[in-house]
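Researcher: Sequence of Voltage-dependent calcium channel subunit alpha-2/delta-4 follows. Predict its structure.
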Amino acid sequence: MKADIVLLVLILGLCAEQCVGALSNHIIDQKQVHSWAQRIGMELWGFATHVTQLEKLKENFTEARVETVDPEQLLGTIAKSIEDMMLNKISALKRIADTAEKAALSFTDDANLTNVKYWNANKDIAAMESYKDPNFYHLQVNTNRSVIHVPVNVYNETEDVLRVAEWSKALDPIFVRNYQDDPSLSWQYFGSTTGALRVFPANQWSHFQSKFEPPDVEPDSLIDLYDCRVREWYINAAASPKDMIILLDNSGSMMGQRREIARHVINDLLDTLGNNDYVNVLKFTQNATEVEPCFADILVQANLANIRTLKIGVEKVGDANNIANFSVAFKRAFQILELARINKTGADCNQAIMVVTDGASENYKEVFEEWNWRGQNDSTQWPVRVFTYLVGKEVADYRDVKWMACANKEQKVTTFT
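Model: Prediction complete. Tokens:
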């Protein structure tokens, strides 16, 4: 196209020169002017045709036709296409999450980390085979493996980093499979609590210039301040939407100081929730009932109004009495959470039962087998996590309470005195 523009300018210049020469002799040949006009017109037409690809446009619209479409059907088709696309993305994400959880659970703390090696994205990885990929902004990448980025304030050879680097290698085949199934996928990554970030595809980490750096600073001398743990996506994932049932032991032993501590624990738990979470609070002895009767058999959004209502309900809980029936309480909690999953009336994400008690006489394994495990040996398939909070100074035997948490995807029991 540049050549055409130059040619057009030369023709116009030649015509202007001839025109000026003719005017200087005070003789205007009409035939010659007509010839110039034709030449200029033909050149302009040819130039415009070439630039606009007129013939190609005509060819594309040769078989154009007007059809009557059903707008509802068209909208449904578009919606289905978008839904399928989003489901593919969700499936890819779930594969990463499931694999990461299994790999982390199966990795032993006493594993030998002496020979652990990994590709560090912060350092020069020129030795790795790479190529420019248009799907990744024409950067030099390797779509057969991932690399790990470590924040500048974290030593990249600590045991915690090496441990994450070792077990998270299991994600590489998942990354590759996801990309092969859906080439439209952008970057895939996994961020750990150590700050180590596994990124796919592998590429040299870029140091983005900070707005606080002087403009004349060389890019290679900039400090890499990136830390996945302070990024919005990491924070949102760490505090993902959840359905929560809080079980308050209201048996006869929960008197005085224990009762006050339990109330504070529940209030603190409620304060951690946001508008994306759903919650309810049940008190239990021989029966399990909601502290707010209006919220019977449901989960409510954890907005300010509902949280305030639940806190008032906790304050109004009657005097402790009788013996705590944990089986009844757990069954009721599991039923409410299951209904929320089926009817999509909750966060449709993580689910948890929080037990606030001063102890339990047994571990109630049969309840968890029936309502949470359901024959699944794979803990990643269990829908509900169980957290236990022990209150009271005199609590000595907490083995059963600890077992409830550890057997349901949690690894600790929290004690308040």
